[in-house]
Amino acid sequence: MSYQVLARKWRPRTFHELVGQAHVQRALVNALDQGRLHHAYLFTGTRGVGKTTLARILAKCLNCTANGQGDEGVTSTPCGECDSCRSIDEGRFVDLIEVDAASRTKVEDTRELLDNVQYAPTQGRYKVYLIDEVHMLSTSSFNALLKTLEEPPPHVKFLLATTDPQKLPPTVLSRCLQFTLKQMLPERIVEHLAKVLEAESVPFEESALWLLGKAAEGSMRDAMSLADQAIAFGQGEVRHADVAAMLGTLDHRHVLALVEALAEVNAARLLSEVAALGEQAPDFAAVLDDVTAVLHRLAIAQMVPEALDNGHGDRETLLALAARFTAEDIQLYYQIGIHGRGDMDNAPDLRTALEMTLLRMLAFRPQGVPKPAQTPLPLRGDDGSSSPSSASSPGASPETSPPPAPSDAPLPWEAPRDERDDGVQDSPHRAADISPEIPGSTQAITTPPQAESPPVSRVSSLTHEVWLQRFESLGLGGLTRNLAANCVLEADDGDALTLRLDPTLSAMNAQVHLERIQQALADVGITRRLNIEEGVLPEDIETPRQQAERLAAARHAEAVEALASDPHVRQLKETFGARLIEATVKSGEVEAHG
Asked: What domain range is 233 assigned to?
C-alpha cells in the first residue's frame, strides 16, 4: 500500500477531532443541532488552518444517513461509516462539487457551474458547492454568482473558502455567514504533533517539535508536512539537531545564552557566544531580531507573567531569567536593540554590528559595568629590574608618587565629621555644600587628625522627618529613586528599617531596587536591613516625592507673584496688553533677576 502523508492521514473527519478552532466548531455544532442552517458559509483564514476540512465535515453532517436527527435528518456527529460519509472522505461524493476558483476564474465557468443548481441531488440530502480560494473569481463571475448565492434552491448549500477575504465584494460578504479561523498556537501544534508521532511510533524530542511548531507559522498542515520531512531527514526519528539543520534556523538556545550573558553583565561571554554563532554562518541581523524578541517576552514576564506565551517551550526558563533583570534594563536593552537593527545597514559587517549592539547594552546600563580588577604594574629601574622602593625615593617625580588621599576624608555625599554626629540635626542640603579635596591639587591638606572622632554616622532611630531630610543625599537614580521617593518610613528598630509603598506602584518593587536603597543608606551611615511593604499610605504624611512637588509648587507660586508685582512686567501689561503665562515661569529665573 502506498504511503499516505501525515497531513492527509490525520485530517479531522468530525468536528470533535478538529484542533484549535473551538469558536467555529461551537457555532456550527449548535446550528446543526438546532436545525438553524444558513444557505451560504464563508470560511476565511491563512493556509493550513482547516477551511476546506471544515467544509467537508459540514458536508458530511448535512448528508450523513446513519445518525440523522430531526425532520431534516442532519447531525453534528456524522457516523463516518455510511455511504455518504465514506464517499465524501474518499472524494467521490457526486453531490459535493468542489471547485478551485484559482483555475476557473472565467464567467463561463461560473455559469456552467450554476446551470446544474436547479437539479435535485443525486445521492445525498443536499447538493453542496465547495468553492476554494473564492477571491480569485473575476468580477463578472461574482456578478453571475450573486443572485443564486442570495436565493439558492432549498436543496443547495454554498461553502466558500478564502485566504484573502478583503478581495471579496461586499455584496458577496453580505450574503454569507463568515467564520474566521485562527492561526494555530505553537503550544497546540506541538501537542498535536506529539499525539500523532506517538500514534505513528516515531521517536521524537519535544524541543524538536517546538522548532517545527514555530516554523509552521500557525499552519497545522505546514506543521504536519514539516514533520514528514523531519522524519525522512532523521531516518525515522525527529531530533532537535536534525530539525535545526533541516530548517536552517538559529537554535533558540544560542539566543538564550546571549541573554543570559546580558543578565550576568559578562561582556567576555557575550563575545564568546557570538563567536560560537559565527561558526554556523548565521544571519546576524536575524540573531539581533531574536534577542529583541526575547527581551520583549522578558518584559511581559516581569509585568504580566500569566500573559507570557510558550512559543519556544521556554516559558519557565524566561520566568526565571526575568527575575535577573531590572525593568529599566530590559526596556533600555530593547530600545538599543531596535536602534542597532536599523544601524546594521551602515556597519562594516553584520557580526561587528551585532557585537557592538550587545556591548552597547551593557555600556549604557544605569548601574554601569563592573570593571575587571587592575593589577598595578611594578616600577622599573634603569637596568630594567623591578624597583618597588623607587616610588618613595628622593628623586621620584610627582607623577610617579602622588600624595595618598587621607583615609578619613569625607565622601562626596557625606557631611563633615563634626556635623555627622547627630543624624537627626543634619540639614537636608549640607551634603551638597561639601567640596572634598581633589587628589593631586596644590592645596595643602591641613585637616588635623581626629583621634576621638566617632565612626561614620549611625543613627539610633530614624524618623520619617530624617528620611525626608536625607533622601537627596542618598544619590539614587532611575527607577530605584522613583520607588524610594514614593515610600514613607513606617518603622525603624535600629536593626530593620521598614518603608511602606502604595500598592498601585507594586510593579516597581523589585529586589534589585531594595538592595540599592539599602546600600545607599549604608553609604551615608544608616546601616539597616531594609523591608518594603505595600499598603495604603497615611494621608497626613508626605513621601519625598510629594514633599518635592509641594516645595516646587511653592517656589513657583512665589516666582509668579514676584513677576506679577514687578513694575516692568506691569508696564508691559498696560502698554502692550501682555499677559504672564504662569506655566512657563521658573523660580530660578526670578532668583537670577533678583
From this structure: 186-247
Phi, psi of 581 (to 5 degrees): -90, 100
Distance in angstroms (rounded) separating the CA atoms of residues 525 and 417: 11
Which tens digit of pLDDT belongs to each residue from 160-186? 999 999 999 999 999 999 999 998 888
Q: Are residues 143 and 234 both part of a single domain?
A: no
| Chain mean pLDDT for the chain | 80
Q: What is the pTM of this model?
A: 0.56
CA distances from 101 to 98, 129, 573 (A): 9, 12, 77
| Cα distance between residue 356 and residue 124, in whole Å | 68
Are residues 123 and 152 located together in one domain of the fold?
A: yes
> Are 234 and 329 contained in the same domain?
no
User: Does residue 55 share a domain with residue 174?
Assistant: yes
CA distance 311 to 190: 10
Q: Of 323, 412, 329, 339, which Cα lies nearest the Cα of 369?
A: 329
Q: Where on the phi/psi map is residue 92: left (φ > 0), alpha (ψ -120 to 50), or beta? A: alpha
Is 477 within the bounds of a domain? yes
Q: What is the pLDDT of residues 45-100, one digit of tens each?
A: 998 898 999 999 999 999 888 755 544 578 888 888 888 888 998 888 999 988 88
Query: If we measure between CA atoms, which residue out of 471, 470, 530 comes closest to residue 500?
Result: 530
Q: Is the pLDDT of residue 297 over 50?
A: yes
Q: Are both 532 and 553 inside the same structural domain?
A: no
Residue 556 lies in a domain: yes
581 occurs within a structural domain: yes
DSSP 471-540: TGGG---HHHHHHHHTEEEEEE-SSEEEEEE-GGGGGG--HHHHHHHHHHHHHTT---EEEEEE-PPPTT
40-44, strands of its sheet edge to edge: 96-100, 127-132, 156-162, 40-44, 177-180
- Answer yes or no: is 348 within a domain: yes
Kindly list the distances between the CA atom of residue 251 and the CA atoms of 258, 280, 287, 315, 321, in Å, as whole numbers in the listed order.
Answer: 12, 10, 10, 16, 18
Residue 439's pLDDT is: 39
Name which of 114, 161, 111, 112 is nearest 135 in CA terms.
161
Please write the tens of the pLDDT for every residue from 549-591. Answer: 999 889 989 988 888 888 988 888 888 888 888 888 876 644 4
Per residue in 204-223, pLDDT (tens digit) is 988 889 889 888 888 999 99
Same domain, 326 and 263: yes
Q: How many CA atoms lie within 13 A of 82 on its CB side?
A: 17
Please count the CA atoms within 13 angstroms of the CA of 206 that sit on its side-chain side: 8
Residues 259 and 233 in one domain: no
* Distance between CA atoms of residues 236 and 197, nearest Å: 11
CA distance 483 to 485: 6
| Beta strands 156-162 and 127-132, pairing class | parallel
Alpha helices (H) along 325-404: 327-343, 350-363
